[in-house]
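Students often ask why inverse folding is considered easier than folding. One informal answer: many sequences map to the same fold, so there is more than one right answer. In these notes we will look at a single instance of the problem. The structure comes first.
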């Protein structure tokens, strides 16, 4: 006879395992109200990976849930950028950072990735996925922003944040590389 405690323990472990399936991971809470728009703005056959957490420690009082999310698609080349801002509009820059995706077939994305590969530090993000970190202060000319780029599943991803967020850029990159991607909601083109 199975004791009640043993049965409850077994059920609890089963419940925890079903909740903790890696395929069920979600992008960070700051993105949740924008998921439908992100998927709608993704070009056909694109995938976007977002981190499970937006981590910010460089500036006092920067809380991820207070950031303003802007979804910015471009057509030529096809690219989707998700920017995180501290304000809607201001005479002073209020960009904190952003995430972008382009197809691996994009010549401009390949040029940028090549620059990261030659000027940046290689970073393992996931099994078989290597990123390249270009640190803004060491660039010529210097930049307040550092960026991490990598190629994965036919897409090229970029994270760009204030250089002081170096360790957080790496943590978010590792999270993105291991997250399941969001898929485009664009309707497939029909030949008529």
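Output (designed amino acids):
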């Amino acid at each position: 006879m199975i004791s009640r405690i043993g049965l409850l323990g077994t059920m609890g472990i089963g419940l925890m395992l079903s909740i903790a399936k890696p395929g069920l991971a979600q992008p960070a809470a700051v993105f949740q109200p924008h998921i439908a728009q992100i998927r709608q703005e993704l070009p056909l056959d694109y995938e976007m990976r977002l981190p499970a957490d937006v981590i910010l420690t460089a500036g006092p009082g920067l809380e991820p849930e207070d950031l303003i999310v802007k979804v910015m698609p471009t057509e030529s080349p096809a690219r989707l950028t998700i920017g995180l801002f501290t304000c809607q509009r201001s005479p002073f820059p209020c960009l904190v950072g952003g995430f972008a995706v382009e197809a691996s077939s994009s010549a401009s994305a390949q040029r940028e990735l090549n620059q990261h590969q030659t000027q940046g530090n290689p970073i393992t993000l996931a099994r078989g996925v290597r990123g390249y970190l270009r640190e803004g202060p060491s660039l010529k000319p210097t930049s307040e922003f550092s960026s991490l780029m990598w190629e994965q599943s036919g897409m090229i991803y970029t994270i760009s944040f204030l250089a002081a967020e170096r360790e957080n850029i790496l943590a978010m990159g590792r999270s993105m590389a291991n997250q399941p991607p969001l898929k485009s909601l664009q309707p497939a083109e029909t030949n008529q």
